[in-house]
Amino acid sequence: MRLFLVIFVLCAVAQYFLPWWIVTPLAFAAAFGLPTSGGRAFMAGFNGVGMGWFMLAVWFNVKNEGLLASRVAQLLPLGGSSWAVVILAAVLSGLVGGLAALAGSWTRQALAPPPVAPAR
Amino acid sequence: MKWIKALLATALSLALTWVLNTKQGDIPPFGKFLSPFQGFWRNAEPANGFPVAQTLTLPGLQQPVQVRFDDKHVPHIFAQNDHDLYFAQGYLTAQDRLWQMDFVTHVAAGRLSEIVGPARLETDRFFRRMGLKFGAEKSTAAMLADPTTRTVLTSYSDGINAYIQSLSPRDYPFEYKLLDYAPEPWEPIKSSLLLKYMAFDLSGRSDDLRLSNALGKYGPAVVQDLFPDYPQREDPIVPVGTPLDFKPLPAPPTPPSFTAAMSNKVAQNEPDPELGSNNFAVDGKKSASGFPILANDPHLQLNLPSIWYQVQLSAPGVNVYGVTIPGAPTVIIGFNDQVAWGVTNVAADVLDFYQLKFKDASQREYWHDGHWKPVRRVVEHIVVRGQPDRYDTVLYTHHGPIVYDKDEKPFMTQTPTRHAMRWTAHDADNEVLAFYKLNRARNYQDYTAALSTYGSPAQNFIFASSQNDIAIWPNGRFPLKWRNQGKFILDGTDPAYDWQGWIPQQQNPHVKNPARGFVSSANQFSAGPDYPYYLNWQYGSYERGHRINERLARMTRVTPDSLRLLQTDNLNLNAQLMLPRMLSLVQGQPLPAAQQKVYDELSRWNYFYEADAIGPSIFELWYSNLVKRLWDDDFGLQATGLEMRAPSRDRTNTLLLQEPTSRWIDDRRTPAKETLETLARLSLQFATDSLTRKFGALGPEWRWAHQKSTDILHLAQLPGFGRLDLNVGGGAGIVNATSERNGPSWRMVVALGPQVKAYGVYPGGQSGNPGSAYYENLIDTWSAGQLTELVFLRSPDEKHPRVQAAWTLQQK
Description:
The complex is a heterodimer.
Chain A: H1 2-17, H2 23-33, H3 38-63, H4 67-75, H5 82-111
Chain B: H1 2-20, H2 30-34, E1 53-58, E2 65-70, E3 75-78, H3 82-108, H4 112-116, H5 121-129, H6 132-145, H7 147-165, H8 174-179, H9 188-203, H10 208-226, E4 277-282, E5 293-301, E6 303-304, E7 309-315, E8 318-324, E9 333-335, E10 339-345, E11 351-355, E12 365-368, E13 371-374, E14 376-382, E15 390-396, E16 401-402, E17 419-423, H11 431-439, H12 444-451, E18 459-465, E19 470-475, E20 490-491, E21 511-512, E22 518-521, H13 543-554, H14 560-567, H15 573-586, H16 593-604, H17 615-635, H18 637-640, H19 649-658, H20 676-695, H21 704-708, E23 710-714, E24 723-726, E25 742-744, E26 747-751, E27 757-761, H22 779-783, E28 788-789, E29 803-811
Parallel strand pairs in B: 1-29, 3-7, 6-23, 11-20
Antiparallel strand pairs in B: 2-3, 2-29, 4-5, 4-22, 5-25, 5-26, 7-8, 8-9, 9-10, 10-18, 11-17, 12-13, 14-15, 15-16, 18-19, 19-21, 23-24, 26-27, 27-28
């Protein structure tokens, strides 16, 4: 939960000022600094980055009444559903965040075994 | 093992990040594009997010500028000097249309490959070889040499650049994010390129080669018969009998007859028959108000963002409303409180090809006027996204560029190879000054003074004033030609074939306050055979113009609504003329049941191309297939091995109506002897079968709007970003010239008087942003044939129920 919150807040703030790919080093570093199992790191990264994208995309989509995203959904093509584009954005960013956090977690584990067994 | 896992995960994570940040072919960089922090979501404008009041501080302004926006999102700009006026026009146009104007200049300059990669390399080569930039450079120099237009063009550019500089990548228009590139600074030459692109659209094609081939195959007598210099049915813009108010210059002598050598490299792209336009004006004697009323609807390709952008421009000495081409300053079609004006294309022959004789295969010298003259070589540097740059050498003679100098497949096959091109769009003229003066015109004298600097593309400038003058001038730069000069390919070795001067601008065709009480144009002949100069042998066909004149002649007590209804008139004179003849051709023998039903349906039809009518779907297929059967064996590429054009609609109709024994009727590919009756039956069968295959048995599914399917596509043809299958009538050769992809790109009606009132609409919206509610909000009004009253403010503070937003632009 802590790792998720750190990634969520850090990435949201950073992306406001920096290119989107800043989530990769940030999720990596957070998972490296806050030891946890690989699976939990991935979930924290997936949700931490994906949730930020999901919430903001929902906000824009609602305010715009789905106008632009439904056009994009015809272009991609996703059947014209603006919500499909919201989900796609959330899942893609989640994968980036999750993979980066997993990499960070495993890199730490390679350097030194976790000091304590992961909490159940 | 742990290290391997860690490295693998890290590598995978970095690879995914890289992939999502990089454009892969046509696939956008999904990470950048889909990010709600900086990607396309940022262009999703909130439904009610437009600021009603704000102050923008812009570097470069001299004094504060007031801007009001009406409910259609049209900016009404009130500036205190010309510099600020055009600065604000540039800034606000860019705010709505930056991607569009930038994209079109990339097309015109032959720089599309920079954006989209090697797929558009041939397009780029073509526009460079056509010399659009060559012409734009000359015109830009002329316009910057004039102090007035220098101010207009440079401050307009500065305004656009002020907007571009205010953007960070997250603010870029949608298409930049999709195509993954960035806006570049604007320069005056880009405005000029836009006008040259318009010139290409309207005058950049030529039949010279295909007619030369017909001349070579069939000889002068046949060509004279099938491609006559003046049609049988015509209703010219300047009425026959209009007295000349000038003494004409002698035309240059016609050189001894010349037959162009045939070439196997030719054109297939005919100018689109619906790239035409209508304009008309009635005088005060014919109107209910006692003041003139003027209407205009330019027909162009229907795209989103719209070709036009509405604006009101006010500063000391000017208060004008109308439409502009995004990227070009001033109002192009519009009105002020004294005058209104509009344009349609002239279709004069202003592009000719010259056959060259080179000294040797190196093509460095060509023979002209008894000398070997040097060929100028210009190296074009083309940047290609994702590939090394390309270099392309274009050869220039004193005529102009040699569009293709070796055997290759031309981008537009109408272009003959190893021929030099002469085209008015390559000449330096000051079109912006003409529009600058028209925007400020108060009377007929101002209007004619404005026309004097206009060059290309030649337009029929229609005019009306509150002093009760109406007028029309087919106007532009017209070469002084001997009769039929440029109907065929010209001899490039003999100076007698060169363009030897210009028709003096004051002697362009014109008519002011004609006795019939109206003026009009629909791309037909500029004047009758009594006009002393040769302009062209062929124009737009007469049907639209004649229908307009017929209705205007009958009208009395005209109101703006009368002219609106005329703009949406759906009667097809071609069907009216030809259907009775075609029906009589298939009478006599019994028809199969399906064709008999079709026959009965057509017998009841009134020749109107309404959206719900079934007649037009059948007649269009029947007639076009009949014409194809008539000419394909004599002029088709497959049958003759030569690129030739078929005779015009007027000539074809005369044959179908009056020449049942003509040698052209028989299909020479078959042993049997065909008659008109045979061809008519076969083509009726074709029409019936193809509609049945498409829509089932004859019924409401056959409706015209369904068969025609008018589409408005996004400029880059992005699926989902246009509007398809509009429920509209009209079509080619009809006053309401709404065909599959072309149509009235702006409909305007202006009623002059003590208080000018104007109405207009275009099929799109003010915003170029597909994420804006103003992207296509005017389409439904347009489809319904309705107009919206245009808000014309007298002062920046005027109270108006449709104007809420008030912005201030101020200097830094």
